[in-house]
TrEMBL record:
One of the Pfam families matching this protein, by short name: 3keto-disac_hyd
3-keto-alpha-glucoside-1,2-lyase/3-keto-2-hydroxy-glucal hydratase domain sequence ranges: 44-273
Keyword Signal: yes
Keywords: Signal
Protein name per Swiss-Prot or TrEMBL: DUF1080 domain-containing protein
InterPro entries associated with the record: AL/BT2_dom
Signal peptide: 1-36
Source domain of life: Bacteria
Record carries keyword Metal-binding: no
Organism (species): Chitinophaga defluvii
Amino acid sequence: MTSIFFPGKLMMSLLTMLVCACALSACSSASGTSGASNTAKKPEWIPLFNGKDINDWMVKIHHHEVGENFGNTFRVEDSIIKIRYDQYGDFNEQYGHLYYKQPYSHYHLKFEYRFVGKWCTTAPGYTILNSGVMFHSQDPRTMPKEQDWPISVEMQLLAGLGDGQPRPTGNMCSPGTNVVYKGRLEPQHCLESSSQTYEGEQWVHGELIVLGDSLITHIINGDTVLQYSKPQIGGGVVNRYDPAIKIDGKLLTEGYIALQSEGQPIDFRRIELLDLSGNKRGVPVKRP
């Protein structure tokens, strides 16, 4: 093999060029990796309420057809969804719900609420300073006109009655459903959370982490206050439903999110959702 001799200066020049080339290659590779990382899709919070109207929501009120917002129960003012009864007269068990337009399965929901004004005196007494956020709910379009409550799970919202007695919020209620709590199918309609009592017309921050038919977590003002699992159709409370919908024992893997009206004025704002459905992150599940 013939050997090749490079003068010292030329050798140094070639080495310098080689080092520079390697450095440029490394920079280019790092830049490409960074660029790919920067362009990777990150989970984003989806605003369910646009602060202007409820066009993305559906109304269903007991004794009324889907879409009839009786008495202007659900209205938007000052970037707030307000639930009011000033046009009601007799409440007449006109329990209502405002449903977001599409179902979800795995997600993290956050919202703020506050109780305001005077309770509708013709509503049942238990509804004083009482409302809720329903989830894993049946499609309101599958509810007969005279069905009172949707088959769903409820994150119940309560406020203190000013009597010095504890009244936690972020509880669980189960209209037409059951859940597993502490390893057993819970026989009670409602489960009390560990939250503190909130008095007056203050804003309270609520969060709900729903993992399909697995773990459900309730959070109030940053504190985890209740956990349970295996939400499923069953139990009572719901009346005059379509029997084809109420299949007792069927696990609930997805459903609609709804804000409740049952006689107490309440405000909701900053309603956002982070989709946790794996590869479908940011994309709602398809309707059944």
